[in-house]
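Example record

The entry below shows one chain as it appears in the dataset: sequence first, then structure tokens.
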Amino acid sequence: MPETIAAALHGAAAPNGEAPAGHAKTSFWALTIGSIGVVYGDIGTSPLYALRESVLAAVGPGKPASEAVVLGILSLIIWALLLVVTVKYVIVLLRADNNGEGGTLALMALASRALGRSSGLLIFLGIISGALFYGDAIITPALSVLSAVEGLKIVTPSLDAYIVPITVLILVGLFFVQSRGTASVAKLFGPLTLIWFACIAAAGLWHIGQNWTVLLAFNPYYGVNFLLHHGLIGFYTLGAVFLVMTGCEALYADLGHFGRGPIRFAWLVVVLPALLLNYLGQGALILVDPKAIENPFFLLFPQWALLPMVLLATAATVIASQAVITGAYSLTRQAIQLGLLPRMEIRHTSEALAGQIYMPRVNMLLLAGVLLLVGLFRSSSALASAYGIAVTGTMVVTAMMAIIVINRVWRWPLAATLALMLPFLFIDLTFLTANMLKVVEGGWMPLALGAIVMTLMYTWRRGSRLLMLKIRKQEIPLDFLVANLEKKPPIRVPGTAVFLTGDSGFAPTALMHSLKHYKVLHEKNVILTIETADTPRVDLADRVRIEPVGRTFSRVVLRFGFMESPNVPKALAIARKLGWQFDIMSTSFFLSRRLLKPAAHSGMPRWQDRLFIGLTRWANDATDYFQIPTGRVVEVGTQVTV
């Protein structure tokens, strides 16, 4: 997920998903503390609102909760954390790495490779999970920061009117500093979040000591009994209980940044005990004082500690928000590389760390969405209704793709695979269904946003394929053209020409127009194709492939992983070791720029044609995206109907 933060915290994991090799023992602890801040920032701030919303969903506002209700909800929370987060993610899915990388799109690539083909169903599942993640990326900052600032009401009720303005200021400041990179502040994330977990664990333990009854919640009987005796209300409550697991996808998504060992250790030793203690402490407080349901998290603390905890909670929620924002950058870059979104500007904010990226358009859209949510819902309780659907949807997709990976990659028998994963898929579907009951109250928002992003991704993928097919019909096979040019050579000019194309088997449009209008050819010509591998990164030894085509033409293929930003000049410099004397200052890059117009008959509806054309105009310039020096680029424009 958040590549940029993770890169600042002592690097990425080794390909096997463990901590990077060659580091001292202290590196393991550094990675562990780093993972506490980055990986667990979201799930670690769930106690701010999760138990409160669960109890209110069960009994309604203004009504006291019975012991059976409190123990039932606590039991559901405990076993959700133990079964779904601990077993499914920490024990099982952390083993399903794609060359050391995790996350839904990495899992999609792994499953596609296991099937030996690009499955339409897997692509569709990847689009769904990617689209839903953007909903999570917008809701998390709004809900987390708003719930933390609401603690000011407990400090002094007179500040109630300032909660939304303060939240807006914090969020604007958070998105404003994104362009400066996160390396310096990222080093503080782990220690600050570690202090956060220590404080919430201590507060919970203190109240557990005043009412040991809450420890009965470890018995799953209380959770099952609650669901059986509360019918639809119990099922509705599950949607709120799920709030304790928001952020669990980060466990898997950050596998490549911190390694399997540090993430597991941090969860089992620090995060899980702290969360359990805090939830049990809140339950004990509610049993002693039913009025504490107003805000059981902050009421765990004495009056003198309230303001410091509000400040610490705000810092913790900013960290959680930072993680999901940089996760959105990382996901967008992966989606672009996989052909699901148009090219967008990617700025590298660090010369030393490749993962330090900033995407201005994504940042702007996220900020607009977050501020819109805060303005519409204005409280964490109202906003909590919108949370859950996006995350549960992603969890369902992850479980479905994991079945393919466990069966095909791990080579488990199908029966054993289903025996392992179907219970988790059932749990995920149950939580998803429970969250769907909140559609009217706010759950429509992530669904609407997901539908928009899915439409954009599908339109871009479908339109790109139709455009490619139409262009292929007009192009000439490269080998045929080169053979003819060698028989009847045109006038030659000094230097090297590099023609970019999506298919090295055909002559690029820019080459054909150059011959048609200028009737000249460079001394050396390179047909350059850039491929995206189904692995997160590509070794430098496999970056460049050169194949001669005739005496004056070469076919060069550059391969990048789907988590890498393509840098053409740097990659071409590797070709020197393979015998090509590449000099950027004597090389011209020829790119085809196509002006698209809607055709009378195409493979898409007219509205989708216009949407695809709009996306192409919104796409970032290929020169900037591939990091080619602008002074060496020649663009040849053509008109194409789609």
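Notes for this example: The first strand starts at residue 347 and ends at 348. DSSP finds 25 helices and eight strands in the chain.
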